[in-house]
Amino acid sequence: MSELTAAPPVSNRARPAVGGTLVTMAWRNLWRVRRRTWLTASGVGFAVFFIVLHRSVAAGAFDMMIELATEQLSGHAQVQHAEYLEDPRIRYTVGGLAAVTETLTRHPAVVAVAPRGMGFALVSADAEAGETSFGAQVMGIDPAVEFATLGKEVLPGGRPLERTGEGLLGSVLARNLGAEVGGDIVVLGTEKEGGVAATAVTLVGLFNSGNPELDRSLMMVHFDDFSEAFGLHDEAHTIAVLTRDAGAARDFAAEVAPSLENAATAGTPRVHPWQEVQPELEQFVVMKLGGAYVIYVILVVILAFMVVNTFVMTVYERTAEFGMLKAIGMPPGAIFRMVQFEGLWMSVLGAALGLAVAAAVVAALSVQGIPLAAMLEGMEDMLGRLSLPDALVPVFDPVAALVATATMVVAVQLAVLVPAPRIWRLNAVEALRDEE
Amino acid sequence: MKLRLLVQLGWRNLWRHKRRNGILLGGITFAVASVVLANSFIRGMQVQMADNAVDLMNGHVKILAPGYLDDPGIAQSFEVAQDWQPDALDGITPDMVAGWASRVRVPAVIMSERETRGIQLVGIDPASENISFVGKLAVEGEGLADAADRRVIVGAGLAEQIETLVGRRIVLITQGADGRNREAGYRVAGIYRTDSSSLEKIFVFTGRDTVQNLLETNVVTELSVRVTEERFGPPLLQRLANVFSGLDVMTWQELDPTAAAMTAIIDVAILVYFFIMMGALSFGLVNSLVTAVMERTREMGMMRAIGMRPRSVLLQVVLESTLIMGAGIAGGVLLGVLVYLPIADGVDLAAFDEALSTFGLSNVLVPQLIAQDVILVVVLSLILGFVASASPAVRCMKMGPLEAMRR
To answer: What is the DSSP secondary-structure string of B327-371?
Structure first.
């Protein structure tokens, strides 16, 4: 109490405490109860750490998943007949293939444009009657411009498609047909106008996509052979486009669609971003991220409870102190702002802590990558199905870092509001008496 | 007597700081309720995934001819006696077996007047298909009457693609064991709908005898057995492997490794989520307990001075932590259950239709509140509360009575 006896002369109206002073006071106040500050800040840091780490790993995983899945076959956008996606019939083609391809190629974001024909046919390993035949999807591709990774990598003993008169088979389909590289494959289907589509190609390779469906049912032939057999003239069922950014596929599709109206003949084509071609891929990502958001929110709410608790303790313990501040003329608003700054310092400290640890962990993990293949031993099959790489390299997600930090700062400021009314209600005299 | 006194002291101490402990209690309650609910959803997903994998004509145990998985054709087949019964096996009682079904499943081509598609033709005995999704199909028109039914039912997705309707005729082409193609015309009895759009495009069903007649054979390609409880699977597998030596006797996990892997991952995920949420909670718990101990240093010093043993002081702090944790856990479990009850019948997730079906889930997710999970949460939370109180307790134990009272 000795400090009070030497009270400085006070003017009638208290000068409002300067913001800078409050900030400094708040910072010093934090260190009066070190342990509590560290514990609360660590709690905030824990939430920031978890959210940033999770986003860095998951976002990296999903980006990679989307890249791998779209590059395998679909590309980032597909130009198709307006009806084809819903009802893939052989007669729903995009006409004016050359003009459409040229228009697409001129777009600055386009990396590759690949025409494809798709038809259903019975394929058999030999022309002679009595041989086994299987139903298959026959896909015509142009190896000169095709970007799909499917079919680029073939099993040992074969090679990818290079010219007309050649064909590729899914590994299981080939096994079922009893087909061997070097042998002939006969394709028998229905051409565009309803006639018989027939062709025979030499099997040059087998592919193993990791997707049992594709391996069991897909055959690839040269686009020219396909056009001839199935009766296509300057047309294709799908014109697949690979762009620079899978994330911008929707915008890209909307942007190029009008320019194709003139190029294409026989009806206006539709441009589908990959999200429409492979809805399950996007939904899976959305569902996973959505589930994660629920966890984030729960985490932030738990932390908010803890911060509220900390500040309730702080404010109640310091009743006498606040009473004194009030007595020497500090307005309750300033006291409240000081406590707010304490919260701000606390959350910034915690977030910095969380970010530092998250950055360190991400950096450590990215040296080798997270060895998914080794972790999921015996489930490698699933990596293929989910289009995940063998090793996952996390990338620090700055957006997540910013959002997580901002969220925690706001949550802490809201939590500080809970004990705030007490600061206003405080009666200086009674509060001072509170000190034992 | 001593312990009762300590519990009483602890309980009263908690009430000295109603607000602080109330907030802490709120935090614990919220965290425990969140974990309980999150677990019930994740479990629901897991149960559904496993159920669907079993439902997808796998059964818990399935018998196949060697090589069928590589080349699913009639050439890879076996014979089953008409009156074969799995519960006649040694050590298998009828109440362990939910049902069994033999089928002829072969790849085929379906042709309507307009379109041709590759499909899986499945010859079934409708009476025994209550063990798979086939028995639960919503069929427009008529279902199959018996194993000799000469009509087919097709999925709505396929019917749309090949432009066929109930009552129309379609042609099925499939390959016999001799490699020769057989074809025959059939009438569409009904069109079925499922939660999964992809299933509808793959499977076409008809009577088992019908497919056997078409292929001029009396063999089947698969025999699935469903048990009433998962734990009866392994003993059944054993017995079946003995009886059907020379054939592949497989579990659903082997037949659907993706579903099995996802199911296994979920067991780990439940623990991970628990530790993340409770980890966040523990910061607050330690914080409150430390404060509670620190502000009572003097009081505890006095207790020590009047003869309370250090051990008892320690015990008291631990008791206080356990009491509030216990109350929070009870409240949390109660809250979790209260929220769970109105959604116990399932939550509609139609927006994620395709992604769900890719992973063998249907649109309605039914959360599963399992006593075992709740007990796990309760036990782990109590341990956490115990651990969280250790550091403050040790701290106050170390302090001598004089030193403590001087502060």
So the answer is: HHHHHHHHHHHHHHHHHTT-EE-GGGHHHHHHTT--SEE-----H
Mutation test of the interface with chain A: which of B283, B295, B359, choosing the one with the most A Cβ atoms within 10 A?
Answer: B283
Contact B280 A190 (CB under 8 A): no
Question: Cβ distance B244 to B224 under 8 Å?
Answer: no
Interface confidence, given as ipTM, is 0.71
- Chain centroid to Cα A136, Å, comes to 33
Interface mutation target, options A30, A33, A39, chain B, most CBs of B under 10 Å: A39
Q: How many residues does chain A have?
A: 436
Is the pTM higher than 0.90? The answer reads no
The pLDDT of residue B296 is above 90: no
**Rounded Cα gap, residues B369 and A100, in angstroms:** 56
> Residue A370 has what DSSP assignment?
B
What's the confidence (pLDDT) of residue A291?
75
Distance from CA of B274 to the nearest CA of A (A): 10
Report the gap between the CA of A8 and the closest CA in chain B (Å).
Answer: 30
Whether A410 contacts chain B with CB within 8 A = no
Burial profile A216-242: b = 16 or more Cβ within 10 angstroms, e = fewer: bbbbbbbbebbbbbbbbebbbbbbbbb
- Between the alpha carbon of residue A398 and those of residues A56, A60, A421, B96, B276, the distances in Å are 9, 12, 37, 55, 22
| Beta-carbon pairs below 8 A across chains A and B | 142
Q: Where are the domains of chain A?
A: 14-67+282-433, 77-244
CB B50 within 8 A of CB A306: no
